[in-house]
């Protein structure tokens, strides 16, 4: 009987029991959780301000002016530069902040550098950075302008491409078209080619320009071939033709010559083989 009682006796754990007296389980810094577990009592009051970051006031000298700034003690110098942009009129990238006669990196934190409330800093303008930023801004503006110009040219080329396609269908069906229609399309395409040649671009914009140049050249070559095919419609013989002339643009009844300073020179050779189709070879040269 004594042995059975010994087996049923609960084991003693290593956890100390709560302080005796009054039957209060929360005495002595202990509390009972809802699940019945006895844990050490938490002191909420001692931790409620644990994560609060103090604010500090610093004085920044810029030229002959002083600016007082309230900022977190754990903020970076880059954040301080952003706060100084409005009162000083300097872009954050054009600022240099000196603390204890030493320039501080924008990624460095104030408290790590030893900045405290009442600390004095000096702000000076970074002229090299301002010049680089201005050059970059001008470059970006130039690329945006070039992209818009290429986009406008692409719209015009799309319209002309539809006219080239319609003309090709008519000639392929055996219908002879007025030669001025073909010359007009060629001239309009060459005008777009001149505009593309005058655009200076880099990167993706340069690739877009190159794509449009190839498109225009392809349509001009197609029109050269159509012009030869159109000239043979209704004729019994097709003599050998050498085509090398200045294209002119027709606007209604008015004839407008193309610019003489056009930098894209086309050399087109037409070879008529008998029997067989007309072969057109076009070489593009850039001066």
UniProtKB/TrEMBL annotation:
Single GO BP term: protein stabilization
Q: Which Pfam families match?
A: BAG, ubiquitin
Q: Which InterPro entries match?
A: BAG_chaperone_regulator (IPR039773), BAG_dom_sf (IPR036533), BAG_domain (IPR003103), Ubiquitin-like_dom (IPR000626), Ubiquitin-like_domsf (IPR029071)
**Residue ranges annotated for the BAG domain, each copy included:** 149-227
Identify a single GO molecular function assigned to this protein.
Answer: protein-folding chaperone binding
**Is Coiled coil set as a keyword in this record?**
yes
Q: Which residues form a coiled coil?
A: 125-163
Protein keywords: Chaperone, Coiled coil
Region listing for Disordered, in residue ranges: 1-30
Q: Which SUPFAM superfamilies match?
A: BAG domain (SSF63491), Ubiquitin-like (SSF54236)
What CDD domains does the annotation carry? Ubl_AtBAG1_like
Ubiquitin-like domain boundaries: 56-124
Q: List cellular component terms (GO).
A: cytoplasm
The protein's job, in short, is: Co-chaperone that regulates diverse cellular pathways, such as programmed cell death and stress responses.
Q: What is this protein called?
A: BAG family molecular chaperone regulator 3
Originating organism: Coffea arabica (Arabian coffee)
């Amino acid at each position: 009987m004594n042995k059975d009682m010994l087996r049923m006796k609960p084991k003693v754990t290593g956890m100390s029991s709560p302080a005796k007296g009054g039957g209060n389980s929360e005495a002595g810094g202990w509390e009972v959780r809802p699940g019945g577990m006895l844990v050490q009592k938490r002191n909420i009051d001692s931790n409620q301000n644990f994560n609060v970051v103090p604010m500090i006031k610093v004085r920044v000298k810029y030229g002959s002016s002083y600016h007082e700034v309230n900022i977190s003690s754990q903020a970076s110098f880059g954040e301080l530069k952003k706060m100084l942009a409005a009162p000083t009129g300097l872009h954050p990238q054009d600022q240099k902040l000196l603390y204890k006669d030493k320039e501080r990196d924008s990624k460095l934190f104030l408290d790590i550098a030893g900045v405290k409330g009442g600390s004095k800093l000096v702000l000076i303008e970074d002229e090299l950075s301002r010049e680089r930023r201005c050059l970059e801004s001008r470059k970006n503006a130039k690329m945006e302008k070039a992209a818009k110009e290429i986009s406008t040219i692409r719209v015009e080329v799309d319209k002309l491409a539809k006219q080239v396609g319609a003309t090709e269908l008519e000639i392929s069906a055996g219908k002879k078209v007025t030669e001025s229609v073909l010359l007009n399309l060629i001239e309009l395409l060459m005008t777009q080619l001149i505009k593309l040649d005058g655009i200076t671009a880099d990167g993706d914009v340069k690739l877009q320009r190159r794509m449009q140049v190839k498109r225009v050249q392809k349509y001009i070559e197609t029109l050269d071939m159509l012009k030869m095919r159109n000239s043979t419609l209704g004729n019994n013989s097709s003599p050998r033709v050498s085509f090398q002339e200045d294209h002119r643009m027709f606007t209604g009844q008015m004839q407008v010559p193309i610019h003489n300073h056009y930098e894209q020179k086309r050399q087109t050779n037409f070879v008529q083989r008998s029997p067989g189709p007309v072969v057109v070879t076009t070489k593009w040269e850039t001066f």
